[in-house]
């Protein structure tokens, strides 16, 4: 995505969205290795921010066997 003013990223993605100024050729050069071929300028429709999980999933407990060299 690319924006035409400094206020547009906050309007579209929220006030905490970080951004940097890049010329279009620089943006394309950075995204080309990722297979990106389209630059959307001043998008207006975005998905809402993801909500934090209501109940975090606990990680399984594990032990390192005695005498392990790791």
Structure overview:
This protein is 20% helix and 0% strand. The protein is mainly alpha-helical and 70 residues long. The longest helix is centred in the middle third of the chain and has 8 residues, at 24-31. The chain starts with 7 loop residues before the first helix and ends in a 39-residue tail after the last helix.
Task: List its traits.
70 residues, mainly alpha, 20% helix
Helix proportion: 10-25%
Average pLDDT for all residues: 80
Number of helices: 2
Secondary-structure element series = HH
Let me know the number of strands.
Answer: 0
Low-confidence stretches: none
Strand content: under 5%
Report the sheet with the most strands, covering strand number, pairing sense and barrel closure.
none
Please identify the structural class as seen in this structure.
Answer: mainly alpha
Please specify the SSE layout and strand pairing.
Elements: H1 8-13, H2 24-31
Summarize the structure.
This protein is mostly helical and 70 residues long. It has two helices and no strands.
């Amino acid at each position: 995505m690319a924006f035409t003013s400094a206020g547009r990223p906050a309007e579209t993605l929220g006030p905490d969205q970080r951004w940097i100024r890049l010329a279009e050729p620089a943006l394309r050069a950075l995204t080309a290795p990722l297979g990106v071929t389209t630059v959307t300028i001043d998008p207006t429709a975005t998905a809402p921010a993801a909500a934090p999980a209501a109940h975090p999933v606990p990680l399984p407990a594990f032990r390192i066997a005695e005498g392990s060299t790791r």
